[in-house]
Design a protein that fits this description.
Helix content: 25-40%
Largest sheet: 8 strands, mixed
Number of strands: 8
Order of helices and strands: HHEHEHEEEEHHEHEH
Structural class: alpha/beta
Number of helices: 8
Radius of gyration: 17 Å
Low-confidence stretches: none
Distance between the termini: 24 Å
Mean pLDDT: 90
Strand order of the largest sheet: 3-4-5-2-6-7-1-8
Strand content: 15-25%
Length: 238
């Protein structure tokens, strides 16, 4: 995978299929069609796998779309969360610096074969670029107003119990006004929100639990799933 060469030659080397085993919680989450999906899952339950699956689906359903990924800080995102995302994407055959680049543009010689987002940024330092043109903005909640002014098609949030729900509601969720509404409006992941994290340790971090009440009332629009790593024991032992 690390051999030098043009993009299309490397893609041919990567075209191998493998079976990804999903635990019960992952299999259920993968089939959810509600626009808002909350996963209150314990560590090692398999959130990384679901994120890899959904990001692959975004590339399939909505080439050239834009999304936003939110974490507590850039330090957390870049040093702790991104490595797990890379692992999750590899499970579904998407490789860093082959199918996507983090914080930089693809090589100039590759760009003529890559798609371009409908609304790409000028600065790629906090941006993930995929070969289909899909782009994901990395947003840190410890930077005041970070995320405001973006136009996106989907939102992905990690470590939700460490985030401020009011800031998400004011800075991030309104960005989902759509970069190409007419093109994407019938796609399941257009306008979707994925929120993941472990159980909140205090009331301030439990803001997302209000979504559970909405899920009880309107499960077609909201889905709230709880699970522990016991459901992932078979995968953990592999």
């Amino acid at each position: 995978m690390r051999n030098k060469g043009d993009y299309q030659s490397l893609m041919r080397q990567a075209s191998k299929f493998k079976v990804v085993k999903l635990n019960d919680a992952q299999a259920y989450a993968a089939q959810v069609t509600a626009k808002t999906l909350v996963l209150e899952w314990g560590r090692r339950t398999g959130k990384t796998t679901i994120r890899g699956y959904r990001w692959r689906e975004v590339n399939r359903q909505m080439p050239r779309s834009s999304g936003v990924f939110v974490g507590p800080s850039y330090k957390d995102i870049l040093s702790r969360i991104i490595p797990s995302i890379i692992s999750g994407l590899e499970m579904f055959g998407l490789y860093n610096e082959l199918h996507y680049f983090i914080g930089k543009r693809p090589p100039r010689s590759w760009r003529q074969t890559w798609g371009t987002a409908y609304m790409p940024p000028e600065d790629h330092s906090h941006y993930i670029t995929f070969w289909t043109g899909v782009g994901i903005h990395l947003v840190s909640q410890d930077v005041k107003g970070d995320g405001r002014g973006l136009t996106t098609d989907f939102v992905d949030v990690d470590e939700m119990s460490k985030l401020n729900g009011e800031k998400l509601a004011s800075d991030v969720f309104p960005t989902m006004s759509g970069t190409a509404k007419k093109k994407f409006k019938h796609q399941p992941l257009f306008g979707s929100r994925l929120l993941t994290g472990t159980v909140a340790l205090d009331q301030e971090g439990a803001w997302y639990q209000k979504i559970e009440e909405k899920a009880d009332i309107d499960p077609k629009r909201f889905r709230f799933l709880k699970a522990t790593c016991l459901l992932n024991s078979e995968n953990l032992m592999d």
